[in-house]
Amino acid sequence: MSRAYNFSAGPATLPETVLQQAQAELLDWHGVGASIVELSHRGPEFLQVAQEAEADLRTLMSIPQDYAVLFLQGGATTQQALIALNFAAPGQTVDYAVTGHWGKTALKQVKPYVDAKVAANGEAGGFRDIPAYGQWQLSKDAAYVHYTANETIHGVEFRDIPDTGDVPLVGDFSSSIVSEPLDVSKFGILYAGAQKNLGPVGVSVVIVRRDLLERAGQPRAEILDYRAHVKGESMLNTPPTWNWYLAGLVFKWMIAQGGVSEFAQRNARKSALLYRTIDESGGFYRNEVAAGARSRMNVPFFLKDEALDKPFLKEAEAAGLISLKGHRALGGMRASIYNAMPEEGVQALADFMRDFQNRNG
Ligand SMILES: *Cc1c(COP(=O)(O)O)cnc(C)c1O
Fold first, then answer.
1. Which residues are recorded as binding pyridoxal 5'-phosphate (predicted)?
2. CATH 3.90.1150.10 domain extents, the chain
C-alpha cells in the first residue's frame, strides 16, 4: 500500500504517524482491554485524553488562562450560529467582514437573530483581495466584529489581525489555526472546525475570553450555551470522543515536530514554492488573489486552457497527487497544504506541474 499526497481541503490529510498510532491503539488503548472509543467519556481514561488535548493545545497556541477552551460538536457552521446566540442580544448590531464563501456563510447563520451589518465586502472584486481597513465601516455599538482569517475556498488570508478597538474580535480560524504563531489575547473568540488543520471532522475548537461568557445573549437551550459548556467541561452530553482523541494525537505530533513556529516556517516554504511555480509558468497556471492576501493554506489555481483540467487531474492522480479539483464555486484546481502536508508533497506537486506544462504548454 502507498499513501498518496492528498491535497483535500477538508476533511484533509492527517499525519501518517498519528494514523499509525491510532491504528496500533484501536483495539486496546494503553492496556485497558478496550478501544478509547468504547469507554465512557466520564471514565479516567478518556478524561486523561481530554485534559491532555486541552493542555497541549494551550501549550501550542500559548492560550492565556483567561480564555476557556471548548471541544464541541456541530462543526464550524454551528459555532457561527451559536456566537450570535451567546454574545449578542436579540436584534443587537454585529459587524461582519465578508472576504469569501465562509464569511458569507457566517453572516447567513446569524441573520435570524441579530442586526448583521456587512462592515467590509470583497465580493465585487470576486473575493480576490481583502478590503483595506480604512474602508471598513464598523458600528460603534456592535456586539462583536466577525472575520474569516483564511478563506478556504477563495484562498484569501489575512496576514495581520484587524484592529477593532474595544469591540471584541471573533475569528473563524477553521483552515489556519495552529499554522503560525497567533496572539490569542487580541481576540474575543476564536473558533475552528477540526477537519482542516486539527484532526478529523466531528469536533470544533472554540477559544473564548471568559469575561464574554457573562453576556446574557439570547434565549437558548443549555446545549447551545457556551457558558454551560465551559462549566460542563465540554461534556454536557456525550462528546465526539474519537475525534477529540485523534485531535489530541495531532497536538502531540505538532509539539514533537517543534510546535507552531516550526510549522509556520514549513508552511511559508510550501506556499512560496507553489506560488512561485504558478507565477513562473508564464500564464500556463494562474492564481488571481492579490499578492498580499494569498493564503498559505489553500492555493486555488487555474490552467490557461480549461480543456486541460481533466488530463491534469487524471495524470496528477496517477502520479500520487490526489484531491486537487477546485471547489465547484470557483472551478479550476485547489491545493490545500495544511500542517500535515509534508514539504515533499508540495515539491512533488510543483515538479508535476512543471512537467505537465512542458508536455502541454
Ligand atoms: C470548512 C470551513 C467552515 C465550515 O466548517 P464545517 O465544520 O463544515 O461547518 C467554516 N469556515 C471555514 C473557514 C472553513 O474552512
1. 76-77, 102, 152, 172, 195, 237-238
2. 259-360
